[in-house]
């Protein structure tokens, strides 16, 4: 059911997609403090997976070494909250979400798009992943020789404007419009 640009019931299908990524192994998470600054942004996230599309709103904060993501539908109803302090991931989901939720997959995507390359390279390499910026505003994630994901940015600061993430391994894409709070 599509209402006001958001998928309500099928959002749980999108969460199933995020669960897939966690099963096969996501890139390692780095401590939120490795961002090097505190941030607070509001985001509109548009996702596509096969014939499914969705839009949801997100508030992301990184403060005092803790990263928090709050996802909401177009009516402002909370769908999920994820907190990560560099040691443990805690998540809460709305009762309407009937699918297992892998918050680590979502956090890994967020860090891939928004964290500085320097804070991600070493932990990823140690875990068998390679991260590079092949051109200005383009970031690529590989496992061995396989291109797993690619991020593109509309500006040099991914925290402002549009960012795109395509996950080739699991066949989904995200368009993220970010604005500072």
Describe the structure.
The chain is an alpha+beta fold. It has one domain (2-180): outer membrane lipoprotein receptor (LolB), chain A (Clam), CATH 2.50.20. 20% of the residues lie in helices and 46% in strands. The protein is built from three helices and twelve strands. The protein has helices at 11-24, 103-114, 117-126; strands spanning 2-3, 6-7, 39-49, 52-63, 66-72, 78-84, 89-93, 129-135, 138-143, 146-153, 161-167, 172-180. The strands form two sheets. Strands 7-6-5-4-3-12-11-10-9-8 form a ten-stranded antiparallel sheet. Strands 1-2 form a two-stranded antiparallel ribbon. A hairpin with a 7-residue loop joins strand 10 (146-153) and strand 11 (161-167). Helix 1 packs across helix 2. The longest helix has 14 residues, at 11-24. It is globular and about 40 Å long. The model is unreliable at 1-23 (pLDDT under 50).
Enumerate how many helices there are, as a single number: 3
What structural class is derived from the secondary structure elements? alpha+beta
CATH class: Mainly Beta
From the spread of the alpha carbons, the general shape counts as: globular
């Amino acid at each position: 059911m599509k209402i006001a640009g958001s998928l309500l019931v099928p959002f749980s299908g999108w969460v199933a997609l995020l669960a897939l990524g966690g099963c096969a192994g996501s890139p390692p998470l780095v401590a939120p403090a490795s961002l090097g600054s505190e941030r607070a942004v509001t985001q509109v996230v548009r996702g596509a997976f096969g014939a499914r599309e969705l839009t949801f709103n997100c508030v992301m904060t990184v403060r005092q070494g803790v990263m928090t993501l709050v996802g909401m539908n177009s009516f402002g109803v909370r769908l999920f909250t994820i907190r990560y302090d560099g040691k443990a991931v805690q998540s809460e989901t709305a009762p309407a979400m009937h699918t297992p939720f892998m918050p680590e997959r979502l956090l890994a995507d967020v860090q891939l798009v928004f964290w500085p390359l320097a804070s991600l390279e070493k932990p990823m390499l140690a875990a068998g992943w390679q991260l590079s910026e092949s051109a200005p505003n383009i970031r690529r994630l590989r496992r061995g020789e396989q291109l797993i994901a690619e991020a593109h940015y509309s500006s040099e600061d991914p925290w402002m404007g549009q960012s795109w993430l395509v996950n080739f391994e699991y066949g989904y894409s995200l368009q993220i419009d970010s604005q500072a709070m």
